[in-house]
Structure formats: C-alpha cells, structure tokens
Design goal:
It is a single chain. By secondary structure, the protein is an alpha/beta fold. The protein has 2 domains: 169 residues, 3-Layer(aba) Sandwich (D-Maltodextrin-Binding Protein, domain 2); 196 residues, D-Maltodextrin-Binding Protein, domain 2. 49% of the residues lie in helices and 14% in strands. The protein is built from 19 helices and 13 strands. The strands form 4 sheets. Strands 6, 7, 10, 11 and 12 form a 5-stranded mixed sheet that branches. A hairpin with a 2-residue loop joins strand 8 and strand 9. The N terminus is likely disordered.
C-alpha cells in the first residue's frame, strides 16, 4: 500500500513539474518582444502574419514588404552582403532557397527543427539543411500528382477510378504505353499531356545523384531518360507540342486547345503539385469542373513551395525565431490555416488529424488532401543544391535542341556540359 502511494505521489509530482515547465516556457515565449522587418515576394506570408501571428504574439511588431519574385533576389543579395538595411526574416522560393541556405548568411534554426522534427515531413527540412545544420523551414508541403479528366479516362481506359487509373501510369513505361493507347483510340484527338515539359519535375526527382558530386557535374541516367522520353513524345505526337505556361497549355485544361492545324485536342492530364490544383487548374478549367481526379502517376516528385529564414546577424534573434517557429511548427496555427486555405502543411501530426475532412468537388468528390499526404511521405529533399536553378534551365535548353532535331543527343549533352562549366565553373 505504501509502495503504491509512493509511486502515485511521484507520478503527481512529475506531472506538476512538467506543467510548471510548460507554463514557464509558455510565459517566456509570450514575453518575447521586438520589431521585425519581414520581406517576401507574395502576400501569402503577410496574410499569415496579420491574421494569425500578430494575435498570438502582439508584443512583436512586424513591418512587411513585398517585392515581386523576379526582383526579389536582386533586392536581397546586396543587403545580405553588406549587412545594411537587412530584413530580419524573409521568404525564400523553392527555385532559389538553396542558394541562400548554402550562402552563410542565414541564422541557424536547428534548435527549432530538433524540437519538432518528429512532426515534420522530412523533405521540407532537408531542403533547408546544409552541412548538418538547418537554416530554412517551411509551413507547407508541395508534393506533385498527375491530374486527369475522368470522362476521357472512361472513354479510353474504361474506368475513371483513381486506383485503377494509377495502374495505367504506374511507371514511365506504362505512362508511354498508355499515351500511345489514348492516341490510337482517339484517332489522334486526345493527347496524354499538353506539354512534354510537364515531365521535367518528376524526372528531376527520379535522380539517384544530384547535379554536382565532388565538384563535378553529373548527368544522372534519369535525366538522359527524360531526354529520350521527350523526343519520343514529340516524334509520336503524344503531346500538344506547346510549352508550359503558354496560352495553349491553359486552354487544354478547359478543353479548348487547338493544334497548329486548328484541330481541337483534348488533354488527358497534367502534372501539377498541391498549389497547382487550387491556383492553376481550377481557375482555368471552368468548362471541365468536376471532371477531374488525381493520382500519383509514374514518379513521386515535388514542385515549388516557400521557406522562411532569418539573417544570421539579426539584432532581434528571439523574435525572429519565434515567428519562424510559430509559422512552421505550431500545431494550432497550422491546423487552422490548413482548414481555411486547403494547403497541405508540413506538419504530419496536423495533416493526419484533418486529412479525412476534405472532399473536393472539382475532383468529383475525391479527397485530394489525404492523397497528397501520402505522396508527401515519398519525397527526398536531399538532392537539392544551390546551382540547380541555373543547371536546370541549361538542361531544358539542351533537351529542346535535341528534341527539335537541331543537335544529336550527344551534341546537346556536350553543349550542356560546356555551358555549365562556362557559367558556373563546374567541371565535367
């Protein structure tokens, strides 16, 4: 009896100490004050700060400034280099986040990551990690999917059920086989994708090696395979022969794409990430609303996203870290934000809690959130490097010169290697 009483007393004491510790930590966090200057390239971060963070931490005053994405780096680079008029906290877009993560200008956020790593989709932190330290974190995850027209799937594949349609696109060989089947059955009036460029992101994430290994350029077999697939798609008329983000690319979402002969082409599907559903596909597919569904497709990949970082010499380190911690790890905020915005957040605990609450009318009632949650688990963010944006653009140019017949594959690859060496000083 005495032993039981003693154990119970120790348990109660432990709980009391824990509660006191939590209360002390909460009190300490709530006492953080200061003034922060925050820079971003969209109003997304500003909205989060105004609608959520300022209510949570009213003692932290924030001045927010927006610079268009195409001018953002040219504004940020000189102030980071000089240390004058530097923002405390700033957003970093997917295409250039690694440039800053590897720059030596960012505040170490490893303590925030370590306290929350069990709840994060690993790739979101991997992108912000360099030499074992974390310098940028994200509140969102952006896995990619393959969106397809249900009516076209029924017509040419005999089913619109996502589980069964995935079988037709389970790997890249099946994707190509299905693309040929769709073209044959439709007498050329339906193409599997509007642009072969849609496949670049999936192939980029299919690589076993990053672009640069031991200071030398590596052309992974997956990227050579992308060249071959692009050529095959073009030569066999399996796409609409238009570029991503072109007028025709958007028209295909609405069922109004016409080829160079004026023939109407139906587009079976698009490779797009989480934000592509809400901000690209839905606004441009009014005529086809409700006729869509989504699957993983042949390759797991991600596309886009925004990370948050702080200047390493910020005089307001505690306030900067509290802002980043709150936006990227606070469960209550992330749940509220996810339910109102529909964004897939980077917190696995929150995602698992709410993932069964979604039903997307645009996708015929499919639960996109639960599907994206599963896809996000498969992404590896460790192959991302600071030089990727430049190298990717040069590689796309090489692929186009090969696909168009201007160069052989080997000539295109050699020119690509030479261009990388000339622009970045990376040997091959």
């Amino acid at each position: 009896m005495k032993k039981t009483f003693l154990l119970l007393s120790l348990l109660i004491l432990s709980l009391v100490i824990s509660m006191i510790g939590c209360a002390s930590a909460s009190t300490a966090a709530s006492s953080i004050s200061g003034k922060l200057t925050v820079w971003s390239f969209t109003d997304e971060l500003e909205s989060i700060i105004n609608n959520h963070f300022k209510k949570y931490r009213p003692n932290i005053q924030i001045s927010h400034s927006i610079t268009p994405a195409d001018h953002f780096q040219s504004r940020l680079d000189p102030v980071l280099a000089s240390g004058r008029a530097t923002p405390d906290v700033f957003a970093l877009e997917s295409s250039f986040v690694r440039k800053y993560v590897e720059s030596g200008h960012l505040l170490d956020l490893t303590d925030i990551y370590e306290a929350n790593k069990s709840e994060l989709f690993s790739y979101t932190a991997e992108v912000g990690t360099y030499n074992g330290r974390v310098y940028a974190l994200s509140w969102q995850a952006c896995p990619g999917a393959f969106f397809y027209r249900r009516s076209l799937a029924k017509q040419y594949l005999g089913t619109d059920d996502p589980a069964r349609v995935q079988e037709f696109f389970s790997d890249i060989n099946k994707f190509m086989e299905t693309g040929r089947q769709i073209k044959q059955k439709s007498n050329g009036s339906c193409v599997v994708v509007s642009s072969r460029g849609d496949l670049f992101n999936p192939f980029e994430y299919a690589r076993s090696e990053p672009w640069v290994v031991n200071d030398k350029l590596v052309v992974d077999p997956a990227m050579e395979r992308f060249m071959d697939i692009s050529k095959e798609i073009n030569d066999n008329g399996l796409d609409g022969r238009i570029g991503q983000w072109s007028e025709g690319w958007f028209a295909g979402m609405n069922g109004t794409l016409n080829n160079d002969r004026g023939q109407n082409l139906q587009v079976f599907g698009y490779f797009l990430p989480t934000w592509g559903l809400h901000y690209v596909l839905k606004p441009n597919a009014l005529n086809t609303f409700g006729d869509w569904a989504m699957i993983q497709g042949p390759i797991s990949y991600r596309w886009g996203g925004t990370w948050i970082a702080a200047w390493k010499n910020t005089p307001n380190e505690a306030a900067a870290k509290e802002l980043i911690r709150y936006i990227t790890t606070d469960n209550n905020f992330l749940e509220s934000y996810a339910l109102t915005s529909g964004d897939l957040v980077s917190n696995i605990t929150v995602v698992n809690k709410i993932k069964n609450k979604f039903k997307e009318p645009f996708l015929g009632g499919q639960n996109h959130y639960a599907a994206f949650a599963e896809m996000a688990q498969k992404i590896d963010g460790r192959k991302i490097q600071a030089t990727d944006d430049v190298i990717n653009n040069l590689f796309r140019e090489a692929v186009e010169s090969y696909v168009s017949g201007q160069k052989t594959k080997q000539q295109a690859l050699q020119e690509f290697r030479n261009d990388v060496q000339r622009q970045l000083g990376i040997n091959h």
